Amino acid sequence: MNIFSLLDSQTVFPALHAKDKAEILDKLISSLQNNVSNGEVEKIREAVMERENIMSTGVGKGLAIPHGKAPGIQETYAAFAMLDEPVDYESIDDEPVNMVFLLVGPQSSNSLHIKLLSRISRLMNNSSFREQLRGCSSADEIIDLFKEQEHVSFHG
After folding, report:
1. Cross-strand bridge partners of residue 82
2. What does the pLDDT average to over 121-127?
3. Which end of the chain is more exposed for a tag (fewer CB within 10 A), N or C?
4. Homologous superfamily in CATH for domain 4-155
């Protein structure tokens, strides 16, 4: 499964405004509403918040990868945001985040979930890719860049 195929213009934000971690998570989770039922949105919210309470998903280098596995959902969903201003996210390097990639999947898909998290981490660890993302001004540009980078990184 490719990361870019999980993203669409409703779930990608080139300049999201949020004052704190809670608002970022709320906006990203809410962006999934067109893809899932209302009940599923709440299950996703609970799963992501539960995981976040265990340990911050601010992984460093200005990136957070909030994630969770929710009961009752059947597919994997994602959302991505570049923030208009960096926000404190309780990251492991104590630096504020400016990019957030949300990933949620079914409880039953442990291996796929781990594989996708690994793929996101590998992509986002590339400083050149992060810099190219910062140059994007639309959701479509961001999705196209993910597609291109995935092809180069994993199929190239």
Report:
1. 99
2. 94
3. C
4. Mannitol-specific EII; Chain A (3.40.930.10)
What pTM did the predictor assign?
Answer: 0.94
Side chain identity at residue 81, one-letter code: A
| C-alpha to C-alpha distance for 74 and 105, rounded to whole angstroms | 7
H or E stretch including 14? strand 12-16
Per the CB < 8 A criterion, the answer to whether 39 and 74 are in contact is no
Q: What is the pLDDT of residue 106?
A: 93
Q: What is the pLDDT of residue 154?
A: 85
Say how far apart CA 14 and CA 66 lie, in whole Å.
18
| Token pair of 11 as six digits | 């779930």
Q: Alpha carbon of 47 to those of 35, 84, 101, 145: distances in Å?
A: 17, 26, 15, 29
Residues recognised as catalytic: 67
